[in-house]
């Protein structure tokens, strides 16, 4: 499969994702948790889980900045973003293993079309005016 491109907002950082099979190698999810809302400034976060080995920075490595913080549940969360425009690129937590979560909006339009959402998480925290997205897997919360 051809490489799927993406970038930060100002395009100082560019990347590619190479997947053998996007249907089985990637999972795009919508998250309604407070942490995602706060970080994205929206009513949900949307990321695509991919193997770390499928992600490659092709331009702007020196622009990447890292922020690490507790996500509110005692889990360290690592986020990478552009030091020029502030645009987020990816995140992963201590339990992510060999996976990273690419911020969906950083992918080019034709890439996003190949990696549509499969599920919604923390649905119990979905804003009351936002309807459930039909046809997706729904999980009220991750753990007690």
UniProtKB/TrEMBL annotation:
CENP-V/GFA domain location: 4-130
Alphabetic keyword roster: Lyase, Metal-binding, Zinc
Lineage: superkingdom: Eukaryota
Alphabetized Gene3D superfamilies for the sequence: glutathione-dependent formaldehyde- activating enzyme (gfa)
Any matching Pfam family: GFA
Signal peptide residues on this chain, from the entry's feature table: none
Gene Ontology MF annotations: carbon-sulfur lyase activity; metal ion binding
Cited InterPro entries: CENP-V/GFA, Mss4-like_sf
Similarity comment: family membership: Belongs to the Gfa family.
Protein name: Mss4-like protein
Taxonomic source organism: Pseudomassariella vexata
